[in-house]
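Hi P.,

Sorry for the delay on this. The queue was packed all week, but I finally got your sequence through. Input first:
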Amino acid sequence: MRKGLSRRAVLGGALASATSLRLRAHADEAPVVHEVTIKRFTYEPKHIQARVGDIIRWTNLDIAPHTASADDLSWDTGELKKGESAEMVINDRMELTYFCVFHPHMKGKIEIV
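Then the structure:
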């Protein structure tokens, strides 16, 4: 005797299909480049919402050198002198809060959406 599908099974399958389509749609999208300027000893913007695969570009507009360095020091842009830029691709395992090693009061945050 064959059992019919339960409501739970149908809803679970529909949810899995919708999630798969949503993930596939994002995979087909080109990465977004998020621009962060460093000026007056702050990151602008301080908070970035980005997807995995997006790129963040930090550009130093100050006379003083700066960095964007993970709080746990797992990644770092290196020293950025005035007019210099550095890029990083967002991944789901990276530390999401960062600071400047020369000026620790400067802080930024990445939120994966």
